[in-house]
What we know:
Layout: H1 2-59, E1 63-68, H2 69-75, H3 77-91, E2 95-100, H4 106-116, E3 122-126, H5 130-139, E4 145-150, E5 164-169, H6 171-195, E6 204-208, H7 216-229, E7 234-238, E8 250-255, E9 271-274, E10 286-291, H8 294-306, E11 311-314, E12 317-320, H9 328-337
Parallel strand pairs: 1-2, 1-3, 3-4, 4-5, 5-11, 6-7, 6-8, 8-9, 9-10
Antiparallel strand pairs: 10-12
Amino acid sequence: MMMRTILHNLVLKCKKNLQSLFSECKKITLNLVSNHKKQLIATAVIIAALGIQPLIYIIRSPVLIVSDELFDNLYGLERIKRQQRSASIALFRRVLPVVVADGASPDIVSIAVTSAAARPYCVVFPRRYAAAALFYHGEFPEIPNVVLGGLISHYDLPVPNGILCVYGTDRDTDLYRAGVLAGILANTQRTTAAQDEDETPVQQIVAFLQDRDITETQRRLFEAGVQDYSPDTEVGFFNSPEGIPEAEKVSCVVLAESIIESFERIPYVPLILFSWLDPALTSGDVVVMFDDSPWSQVVAAVQMAARRQEEGKIPSKALVFSGKIADNGVSRTLRSSARKPLIYPE
């Protein structure tokens, strides 16, 4: 009898322990399933997000840039592809070129744009196709389009209204930044000359700027930029290359346009150039280029048009060619200073 009682108690105890064990296993299993389910849900959400972003990118209406073969060849086809990728990423929508025949009439340009996209997000026209922009605006008044007028006065371009927008090149900011970069180059050469007794001391920065484009205010802005980094450097303004001193007295030449052949007599002088030409077509002495092409300004232009900003100015994009600068520290300084904000001098 006693043995039966003992066995009965053992069975009850084992049953109780098994129930407790099953209960714990059930909790653990439920927790594992719950955590796994959360992980599955999180993974599904991530996969869905990753999958839907490209879809959104593809179905969003594109930005179109009107161009022609002459410009494309001078600008550089590979360069256009790089600019197209970077602009598409920045705007999170496709940026597509619309290439027309050189000098195509406004109606032909409008047909080409419509064929590329019936309802584009925005169409960007270079100044040479301003008439086509006005024609397209008349055909599709609800679609935003932008005319990039460069340095041309707005009086010579279509009247903006918030849908048709007109933006120019911010030459004030460009010249100030060019002065900053020229000051950095001058200060670097001055330091190098001081360390080398055989090196002829650099005396000044020379700026070759066209009178018809450059105002007195812009000259002051350029000088202010130079003084920010090289306060002891003299700045000279010249109307023709003949007045520029000999190379040993020059630390940097700034060209307001892409006429480089005139500077063959002063080789090995760093050049800062305002041009959208393919760098491969310019002098080997060009270390910085200020590019105000539609490809360099498209992101800012589309963002401004999205805000319905009728008029405005966009700075050029400063391209620093690091491979032509021996000192990596100087190259980094130039790149970091290329976007320095404009500060008007007193």
